[in-house]
Amino acid sequence: MNNYKQKTIYFLIAIAIFSVKTAYSSGFNLNLSGEKKFEINSRVNEPQIIFISDAPLEDMKGNVNAESISGFMGLDPSNIENSKGTVTVKVKGMETGIQKRNSHLYSDEWMDADKYPNITFNLDKITNLKTESTDASKGRSVVKGTATGSFSMHGKSKSINAIVTLTYIKESEDTKKRAPGDFLNVSGKFDVSLKDFNITGIQGLVGSKVGEVINIEFNLYYSAK
Q1: Which of 22, 51, 76, 145 is the most exposed place for a label (fewest CB within 10 A)?
Q2: Strand 118-135 vs strand 183-193: parallel, antiparallel, or unpaired?
Q3: DSSP H helical segments within the chain, as ranges?
């Protein structure tokens, strides 16, 4: 092997190693370490949770009002995998766009909001992390991964995986205009099967007017306490 070919191979290997290191990461690559406590904060931006029912006879898209969403998260920017947190949603904060349908949703035939007033997700870990982008000059980094935790609803709990995108923004003079502390945005989606949580509804509606599986999309905004 001549010297030119040998140098070319070494160069390509170096690029491949660099690409792997930059693509897969356990942190935000912002020279930050130590666990920080984050809290959902509407001053950063209004939290959004959307639920979608796709059924043969009727499609429905609803949301949770911002006042009914709360949550905390403990996160080390250099070690995202071990993040822990909880998101809580008040069932009576779920809105479908029709008041009568809301009342049906809260009733004991469906969500039974009086007996089970809250829906919670307890985060256990975040895996399969991959850096999407980092701009150290702006103190901003974006990482994708899989959040695993316990989802509790209607008196039942089930482990779920949610595909998430996490955006970390270091505190700056611009961010201080909204709220103090570093910012964290967590967005993603997952599916919920009603039968897993013993939600049967009025006979004949699940599978015809209400989807057997509900799609959940979320966009949550946190600030460091």
Answers
A1: 22
A2: unpaired
A3: 3-23, 99-106
pTM here? 0.86
What is the assigned CATH class of domain 3-224? mainly beta
Residue recorded with tokens 């009568």: 100
Contact in structure between 6 and 145 (CB atoms under 8 Å): no
Separation between Cα atoms, residue 178 and residue 187, nearest integer Å: 20
| Measured distance CA(71)–CA(141) in Å, rounded | 22
Compute the distance between CA of residue 197 and CA of residue 21 in angstroms, rounded to an integer: 41
Neighbours of 183 (CB within 10 A): 23
Strand ranges inside the chain, DSSP E: 36-40, 48-54, 59-64, 69-76, 79-90, 94-95, 118-135, 140-153, 156-169, 183-193, 213-224
Instruction: Map residue 92 onto helix, strand or coil.
Output: helix
